[in-house]
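Hi Y.,

Following your request, here is the sequence exactly as I used it, all 191 residues.
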Amino acid sequence: MITRTVNVKLPKNLSASPVALLVQKASKFDSIIYIEAGERKVNAKSIMGMMSITLDEGDELMIRCDGEDEGAALDDCAYIDEFSFTSTPPKNDDFYAAEDLHGTMGAVEGTTRYSMKETGEPVEYSTWTKATNSVWYVWTVPAGASSVKFEVTSKEYNPETGNGYRPIIGVHKGSNLGALSQIAYASDISS
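Below is the corresponding structure, written out as C-alpha cells. Let me know if you'd prefer a different format.
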C-alpha cells in the first residue's frame, strides 16, 4: 500500500466535477483506491461515495492505493489535466536544474514522481509515452570515451504484466531547452 497527501488546486471555470474526473481515473486501475478527506474515507471508484465529499481549493486529501498497479494508480489519480493536487517535484524537474552526471559509468537514483512536462520540452517525449513528466540530467562525454551505457530501471513498472509506467531515456544535445537535438531514445529497460 502506498499513500500520498495532496492539496487540491482548482482552476477557475472548471467544466467538469473534480469528483467525477477522479472516479474516471481511479476506475481504470485494479488497485483498491481510497480518498480520505477530513474524517471521511471513501472508495475512489464509487461515484456515490465520492459525491459525499466536497473538494474545495486548498483542501488536503490522502490518496491510498493498494494493489499490483498502485504506483501508476497513485500517479494518475494525483494529477488530472483539468485540476491538480500539488506535491513537491524532484529537484531536477526543470531543464535548467538538471543533475550533473560524470564519467563513463556509474549509478544515480532519481524519480519522476511529481515532475511535470516543461514548456518547450522536446515534442518527441509525448510520442514515446503516455506520461507527460520528465526529469533532467546533464552529462559531458569524457575525453577519449568511445562509448557509454545509460540504463533506466523502474520499481513501479512490471514488464511481465505491463502494469505501471514504462520509463524512457532520451538523449539530446544542446544547452537551450527550445533548441535541443535528439541523439537517441530508448524504452527497453531492465526491471
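The chain has a mean pLDDT of 76.

Thanks again,
Q.
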